[in-house]
Amino acid sequence: MDRNKLISIFKSLNPGYSPKDNDIWKTIVYDSVPLAHPTTHLFREGEKDNFKAVTAFTEREILDFLFSKHNLHHLLLDELGLPKGNIKSIRELQDPIIQNTNEKPGDLDLVLFSLDSVHRAVVIEAKCVKARTLKSGRIVLNKEKNIAKGISQVNQYLKFGFHRTYLLMILLDDGQHNKRFNQLFRDTNLSVSRKLFNKNILKSLHPDIGLIYLKVNQITGKSILQSGKISLLTAKIAKKKKQKKTTTNAISSLQLD
Q: What is the pTM of this model?
C-alpha cells in the first residue's frame, strides 16, 4: 500500500504521530522443500493445486498456523514487546472471564501474557479480510464487512480490563497469479479497498484500543503451510492500562501446561 496513505491513516489514529523510516511492513518469508542432491530450489511453483488456498482459512485456523509454525508468531510477539521464551497464548477464551457467552463478545480470540507478568496481559480480537489477484489481473476482495464487525466486537473487550487491547486485522492474500513481480513481491493491491483503510470506519475504534494489520500471502502455487510471506504493521498502539484484579485472578486460575 502507498506509504503516504498509510502515514495519513496513522496521523488520524495517533495524534502527534511523526513518521519514521521503520514505519513499514515487517516481513518474514519462508519456504520448505525436501533436501535433494545435488541441487535444491526454493520458492518453486507447486505441482498440485488441490491444497487449501489461503483465502479458505478461518481466523482460528490462521492463528493455529501462526502459533504452530516455528517462529512465525514471533513477529507478533516482537511487535507487542512480549518475550518469546516465557509466553503463554490462550485462544477462544470464555470461562472464567466471560460469564454469559450469549452476549458480545462470545469469546476472546487470543490472550497473550508472560508467566511472570500475568497482570500485563494482551487481549486480541482477530478478523479476516480476503483478497485475490486473478490471472486476468482483476482484484477480488471479500469479507470487508469484518472490519466494522471487528471494531464493534473489540470495543466490547474493554469492559474486561486487560492491560492492552488490540484488533488484529488478518489480510489473507492470494497473490500467486500476480506474475508481473518476483514471487517475493506478489501482493494484491489492497489500496483498492474502500473499507480496509477507511478513516471514517476506523474512527469507530475506541481510542484505547490498538490496531495491527497482519498479511498472510500465498506467493506461489504451494500451500501457505509450506511456503509464503507473513507481514505485520501496527497502525495504532494500544493504551497501557492497569489491569483489573479480577481479570488477573481469572487468568491465574487457569490450569496452564
A: 0.84
